[in-house]
Design a protein that fits this description.
7 helices; 7 strands; alpha/beta; 34% helix; Rossmann fold; globular; single chain
Length: 241
């Protein structure tokens, strides 16, 4: 992966052209960085895409085997230089029981018609005591139609993890009221259909406000998670012994 492509996922700068993606990408990077001390051994990246976090995880954790898994490749241009190590059908993982030490699924569960079954399947291939790290969107446009299935609340995500046999779940909101407004403004400016000239004018008008909102944001925690807006969530959980 080129350095420019990696910058779309890791170390993305905030500017007028990135105000739609900046918060979600930095939130995912922040969640994975926080998980690094708990990752080790064989690691499964569920829904790996072009594996933008592979180098970061191999260098920053005790992971010594990185396995990228995704649906069969159908975008030759996108996967020109990197392909998943194994493929799956979106439900069954072609690996033996207890064959990896830890796993992650970034921005995957919203695409799963049966998320509980997918989490149970991830748990099946994990060794007891291993950690799973997840990220899911909350305030995000419909995408990858018709395969955009769900948006989760923190409570639903924690319940799904418990139901799949995971314990010690820590579910965190990635952003609060201010980041939510900033993200919506950025998405509207950068993605609403409009003439290019109008978009250019609007993105430079909106950028100072979006930057201010992102910088002053505070994500809600615990008892604060009621009657609030959040942008997305991350979760860390451990497979029961």
């Amino acid at each position: 992966m080129s350095r420019a492509h990696r910058k779309q996922f890791i170390g993305m700068p905030l500017n007028a052209d990135t105000q739609d993606l900046y918060h979600v990408r930095t939130a995912i990077q922040r969640a994975l960085t926080g998980a690094l001390p708990k990752l080790q051994g064989a690691f499964l990246d569920v829904g790996c895409g072009v594996m933008p976090y592979r180098e970061m995880i191999l260098k920053g954790s005790q992971v010594d085997r990185y396995i990228g898994m995704d649906l069969p490749v159908n975008d030759e241009a996108k996967y020109k230089t990197i392909r998943p190590d194994i493929t799956w059908d979106g439900l069954g993982i072609p690996m033996p029981d207890a064959s990896v030490d830890c796993a992650m699924a970034t921005e995957v569960l919203e695409h799963c018609p049966d998320p509980l079954a997918v989490l149970k399947e991830i748990g099946r291939v994990m060794r007891p005591g291993g950690h799973l790290v997840l990220t899911v969107p909350f305030l995000w446009p419909l995408h990858d139609a018709p395969y955009d299935e769900h948006r989760y609340t923190p409570f639903a995500l924690e319940r799904l993890l418990r139901g799949a046999g995971f314990i010690d779940a820590e579910v965190r909101a990635s952003g609060g009221w201010d980041a939510s407004l900033g993200q919506m403004i950025g998405l509207w400016v950068m993605r609403r259909p409009m003439p290019p000239f109008i978009r250019t004018v609007l993105k430079w008008m909106s950028y100072p406000l979006v930057r201010w909102l992102f910088r002053r944001d505070r994500a809600p925690k615990g008892a604060e998670l009621d009657w609030v807006m959040i942008t997305a969530m991350s979760a860390m959980a451990r497979k029961a012994q």
